[in-house]
Specification:
The protein has 38 residues and is mainly α. Helix content is 87%, strand content 0%. The N and C termini lie far apart (54 Å).
Length: 38
């Protein structure tokens, strides 16, 4: 159990920042498109 818990946590921590970056990029693109095409 102790070996599986840290592994899952490590994977989650790595996926969280990746998803956050993706969301941030998507939002930035959406805002740019809206600003460029009012």
């Amino acid at each position: 159990s102790a070996g599986g818990d840290p592994l899952l946590l490590r994977i989650k921590v790595r996926i969280v920042p990746l998803w956050r970056s993706h969301e941030g990029k998507l939002i930035a693109v959406s805002n740019k498109v809206e600003f460029g095409n009012p």
